[in-house]
Amino acid sequence: MSSSISERIDQIRSSIPSSVRLIAVSKTVPAEIIRSAYAAGIRDFGESRIQEAASKQAELKDLSDITWHFIGHLQSNKAKKALEQFQWIHSVDNLQLAQRLDNLASQLGVSPHICLQVKILPDPSKSGWTVPELLADLPAINQYKNLQIQGLMTIPPLGLNEAENLDVFNATAKLAKTIRDQNWSHIKMDHLSMGMSSDYKLAVQAGTTMVRLGTILFGDRP
Ligand SMILES: *Cc1c(COP(=O)(O)O)cnc(C)c1O
């Protein structure tokens, strides 16, 4: 890429509303590059592997106002580490994991910000609740008082065209509204985590509050 990271950040910032939270997905990106994104104003970083994140987080300990977002598939045996290392977990994708996180959060005395990952369309390559499954699990999720449920996360299946992609994002926004209108005491639906480098403009159009951008900021991953 010919432009600098701060130029790319400025360009993306100017193309999305200032209310949309820009999460820089720094998986595979070395700590010193994360440091330059920080210097350019980024405070939210997304990682998808606990182990890889841990070593970079140790190197970047001095940047104490970073918010770390876990966005990868979370295995239950890594749940405790995820809670120790991340303030947000976007990829809570089943009830057992949510329950485990709630128990561990209580033990650790933390109250993580959580997004529930949904699959609007069938997608064997991804985990997440289907819409009917999620609606059925809400009464249980509402009991998890140590979790701050913030909203929904989705990743459209690969290979959709723009209109289909936009439909997925709109359906996710609509689902969040449906859940919000049910007035659960411990489930907030103020956030949507959707939009990656190739489709974030569509996600913004559908009203997302957070975009997760990797390639467009840091270049192609190895
Ligand atoms: C890697 C990843 C991203 C960033 O993808 P880009 O296409 O590089 O922007 C966003 N969300 C999740 C869940 C990811 O795994």
Look up the CATH topology: TIM Barrel
Taking Cα atoms only, what radius of gyration do you get, to the nearest Å? 17 Å
Please tell me the total number of domains. Answer: 1
Class of secondary structure makeup: alpha/beta
CATH architecture descriptor: Alpha-Beta Barrel
In round numbers, the mean pLDDT is 97
Using the alpha-carbon principal axes, give the shape: globular
Quick one: how many beta strands? 9
Helix content: 40-55%
User: Ions, cofactors, ligands: which are bound?
Assistant: pyridoxal-5'-phosphate
Order of helices and strands: HEHEHEHEHEEHEHEHEH
Topology:
Layout: H1 5-15, E1 21-25, H2 31-39, E2 44-47, H3 50-59, E3 67-70, H4 79-85, E4 88-92, H5 95-108, E5 113-119, E6 129-130, H6 131-141, E7 148-154, H7 162-180, E8 187-193, H8 200-205, E9 210-213, H9 215-218
Parallel strand pairs: 1-2, 1-9, 2-3, 3-4, 4-5, 5-6, 5-7, 7-8
Helix pairs in contact: 4-5
The chain binds pyridoxal-5'-phosphate.
Pyridoxal-5'-phosphate is lined by residues 25, 27, 48, 71-72, 155, 196-198, 212-216.
